């Protein structure tokens, strides 16, 4: 998150972090998941295997996602071009049920 926010692209660092993140994804909270894919999407680091692993974990935890984390997750996957159907279907279902909890920025991220 920090490197992406600062605009620093460090391919080797992102590769190493992707491998470690996949190994420890079971420990990630919804916020950790969304921050991770946001960072990779922001710097344009493909990490397709990481996106796949995070998507599976996110689908399993989707009921625990706060609207902000859900909207960031949707934005990151769209930005990175990873449009995994099960993830997007699950985000849509949860988003529809909880749309009243979304702030305008969250709605804009999802749209």
Automatic annotation (TrEMBL):
InterPro entries: FAST_kinase (IPR050870). GO terms for biological process: mitochondrial RNA processing; regulation of mitochondrial mRNA stability. One of its GO terms (cellular component) is mitochondrial matrix. GO terms for molecular function: RNA binding. This is Uncharacterized protein.
């Amino acid at each position: 998150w920090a490197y992406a926010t600062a605009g620093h692209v460090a391919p080797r660092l992102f590769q190493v972090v992707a491998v470690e993140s996949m190994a420890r994804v079971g420990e990630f909270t919804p916020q950790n998941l969304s921050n991770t894919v946001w960072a990779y999407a922001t710097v344009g680091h493909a990490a397709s295997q990481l996106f796949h692993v995070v998507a599976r974990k996110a689908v399993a935890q989707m009921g625990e996602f706060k609207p902000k984390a859900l909207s960031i997750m949707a934005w990151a996957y769209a930005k990175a071009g990873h449009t995994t159907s099960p993830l997007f279907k699950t985000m849509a279902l949860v988003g529809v049920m909880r749309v009243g909890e979304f702030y305008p920025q969250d709605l804009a991220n999802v749209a």
